[in-house]
Amino acid sequence: MDTAARPAGLRERKKQRTRDALLRAALELFTGRGYEQTTVDDIAEAVDVSQRTFFRYFANKEEAALAVQEMTVERFVESVRERPPHEAPMEALRQAVLEGWDTLNEVVESVVPVELHLRMYRVIESTPVLLAAHLRRSAEVEETIARVLAEREGLDVDTDPRPRLTVAVFSAVIRVTERQWSTGEDFSLDAIRALTVTYLEQVGDTLTGNWRTA
Predict the structure, then answer these.
(1) 44, 53 in Cβ contact below 8 A?
(2) pLDDT in single tens digits along all 214 residues of the chain
(3) How many Cα neighbours within 13 Å face the side chain of 25?
(4) Exposed, middle or buried: residue 174 (CB in 10 Å: 0-12, 13-18, 19+)?
(5) How many CB atoms lie within 10 A of CB 8?
(6) How far is Cα of residue 99 from the mean position of the Cα atoms in its chain?
(7) Residue 55 · residue 11 · CB < 8 Å
């Protein structure tokens, strides 16, 4: 066995455990005390490390608050890339997001409890600085996904508007879903998955149908 590799592996695992502990402490404090009421010192103290150690892993509180969401977004983008080529763009997005909810446990549980991750949605929705950061990052992800769709379909994203239009519609549906779910009474994973299905199934009729009733 390579004796040099073993200490390096131990160090990496220790660093990962420290990062995970800081992340979990941050989310517990944000959801329990409030984002604005929690300081970096509070997070570091909860894990019994220094403020300097916190900044080795996160640039600021915002990065820690959105870190788990970033993990799920990265998995979603990869899922879109991996969808079968015969699926239409909107169907590929739909299946990728549903797969994300179905596999959320395995993506998130290694770092924080899923329930804690879900509770952070309400913190983000009710904290202007976090909501602004979330929407800014979402816009960046939209551009990435539009380029993935364009590549799948053999299109030039800068001359064909369809990839960006499709992603814009899809993202709007997901945004409405998140907002409705985060302010509702059923705050479970099953609830947001069901709401996602319901809202996505209405996209075609909502965009092209007549809303007026006799």
Answers:
(1) yes
(2) 455 556 668 888 889 999 999 999 999 999 999 999 999 999 999 999 999 999 999 999 999 999 999 999 999 999 999 999 899 999 999 999 999 999 998 889 889 999 999 999 999 999 999 999 999 999 999 999 999 999 999 999 999 999 999 999 999 999 999 999 988 888 899 999 999 999 988 887 766 676 666 5
(3) 20
(4) middle
(5) 10
(6) 13
(7) no
